[in-house]
Specification:
Layout: E1 3-7, E2 13-17, H1 22-31, E3 38-42, H2 48-60, E4 63-66, E5 72-75, E6 83-84, H3 86-89, H4 99-106, E7 108-112, H5 125-133, E8 137-141, E9 144-148, E10 156-158, H6 164-175, E11 180-184, H7 190-201, E12 205-207, E13 213-217, E14 225-228, H8 233-245, E15 249-253, H9 261-269, E16 273-279, E17 282-288, E18 298-299, H10 311-319, E19 324-328, H11 337-344, E20 348-352, E21 355-359, E22 368-370, H12 374-386, E23 390-394, H13 397-402, H14 406-412, E24 416-420
Parallel strand pairs: 2-15, 3-14, 6-7, 10-11, 18-19, 22-23
Antiparallel strand pairs: 1-23, 1-24, 3-5, 4-5, 7-9, 8-9, 11-13, 12-13, 15-17, 16-17, 19-21, 20-21
Helix pairs in contact: 1-2, 1-7, 4-6, 5-6, 6-7, 8-10, 8-12, 10-12, 11-12
Bound molecules: uridine-diphosphate-N-acetylglucosamine (UD1).
Uridine-diphosphate-N-acetylglucosamine binds near residues 93, 124, 163, 166 and 308.
């Protein structure tokens, strides 16, 4: 199993290119199921989760080609299997995103229930309820969601909680339903907007994406389109945190500050100087870190508030900041597993339910630590980059699910980091 070996203490410096967004690419790949024509995507990140999704879609009969620049072309004319098996769903919960498109286009789907995961129970009841409201008949059989429908009907759906993939699944399903669907309390995440833009270019009629009420007027069928995946705001935020924690200075290209207000605000509160350069076809974010960061408290919430996917990285920067920070996690239960690993590096963190209190320490010292989930792994990398001496991070397959070429990108910024087998 691969591990990452980091020799800490080097301030990051230089330029790095941000990849396409994993969480936009995953639902957009599933949108390929909605049409018999070809959907062509660019800026698709080269990640384990993307490969898993392409394998799953390929098993269903979606014809996929990938070029050397990760341009992906998908043709859905010959889909003959409407199933997502347990083996795939358990490795990647986002597999649930095939449910809506399959029922909407073929009137049937068999998708494994995801079960628990490292960051809590994460149910999919909202996905199921929404499809039922559109007239789908749903049974749970042998651990699978079995959905059937003649043609889905437009419906008014109130989402009890803000769910990103729930909103995306139902929005995709509603594109081919008969009549108008209104999703209330919809997720406003930029990835939902990116998916909506792709669907619109395929002929869907959607308004309100990016607000909490999305209206979709169903059409008979969708056609092919070209779409460029938006930049990854969480990868962007992670590199900003890594530069901030190491007292560095970096420039991120192929990204946008537009979706990162809450994160940039907090980094500025911590003492970083952040600016962006914008021209019609180019945007860059530049961060200059102070010698010592100030502690910043955060509370995670749905977009546009502070993202839960940046919580772990902020725990790492607070570990070496001056002062005390409080982190409240309101989206997921059990999302503090990185805290005990950070403690192994010398961080002073107290956990009380969904709240963590972090007292900044003068220095961290390298140790062997274990990655537990994707963003937890990112926080360990950041801490390892700051720590004195050598940090060995085990189980980095989590990182490969969501960070493209992380050791190459960090090396390019001057970090002493290598992958060991
Ligand atoms: C997506 C992101 C993930 C991010 C999360 C929150 C993708 C592929 N993943 O995950 O990186 O951390 O949003 O921003 O885009 N819930 C229910 N019932 C449901 C669905 C969700 O109770 O049917 C709850 C969840 O347990 C959680 C909350 O709603 O407490 C938000 O989860 P949700 O937005 O659905 O997360 P994902 O879409 O799985």
């Amino acid at each position: 199993m691969d591990k990452l070996l980091i020799q800490g203490g080097v301030p990051l410096s230089g330029e790095v290119r941000i990849s396409g967004a994993k969480n936009a690419a995953l639902p957009i790949l599933c949108a390929g199921l909605l049409s018999a024509d070809t959907l062509t995507l660019s800026n698709v990140p080269h990640l384990r989760d993307i490969t898993t999704m392409l394998t799953l879609l390929g098993q269903m009969g979606l014809y996929v080609t990938v070029d050397e620049k990760m341009g992906v072309a998908m043709n859905g004319a010959n889909i003959d299997k409407r199933e997502a098996p347990y083996e795939m769903v358990k490795t990647m919960r986002a597999s649930i995103l095939v449910l809506g498109p399959l029922v909407a286009r073929f009137g049937e789907a068999r998708v494994s229930l995801p079960g628990g995961c490292a960051i809590g129970s994460r149910p999919v009841d909202l996905h199921i309820k929404g499809l039922q409201a559109m007239g789908a008949h749903i049974d749970i059989e042998h651990g699978y969601i079995v959905a059937r429908a003649e043609r889905l009907k437009g419906a008014r759906i109130f989402m009890d909680m803000v769910s990103v993939t729930g909103t995306e699944n139902l929005m995709m399903a509603a594109c081919l339903a008969d009549g108008e669907t209104v999703i209330e309390n919809a997720a406003r995440e930029p990835e939902v907007v990116d998916l909506a833009q792709c669907l619109v270019s395929m002929g869907a009629q959607i308004s309100g994406a990016g607000t909490d009420v999305i209206r979709i007027r169903g059409v008979e069928k969708l056609h092919g389109a070209n779409h460029r995946i938006m930049p990854d705001r969480i990868e962007t935020g992670t590199y900003l945190c890594a530069a901030a924690a190491t007292g560095g200075e970096i420039r991120l290209i192929n990204t946008s500050a537009a979706y990162l207000d809450s994160v940039i605000d907090k980094l500025m509160d911590a003492g970083c100087d952040i600016s962006s350069e914008k021209s019609p076809n180019h945007e860059a974010i530049i961060l200059r870190a102070p010698k010592k960061l100030s502690a910043v408290s955060i509370r995670t919430s749905p977009y546009p508030a502070f993202p839960t996917d940046m919580q772990a990285q902020f725990m790492a920067i607070n570990a070496v900041a001056s002062g005390t920070a409080i982190i409240r996690e309101t989206i997921f239960e059990n999302r503090f597993m990185h805290a005990v690993e950070l403690q192994r590096l010398g961080a002073n963190i107290r956990i009380d339910g969904n709240q963590a209190v972090i007292e900044g320490v003068a220095k961290l010292t390298g140790a062997t630590v274990m990655a537990t989930d994707l963003r937890a792994s990112a926080s360990l990398v950041i801490a390892g980059l700051v720590a004195e001496g050598e940090t060995l991070i085990d189980r980095i397959y989590h990182l490969d699910r969501g960070y493209e070429c992380i050791e190459e990108k960090l090396s390019q910024l001057g970090a002493r980091i290598k992958r060991v087998h």
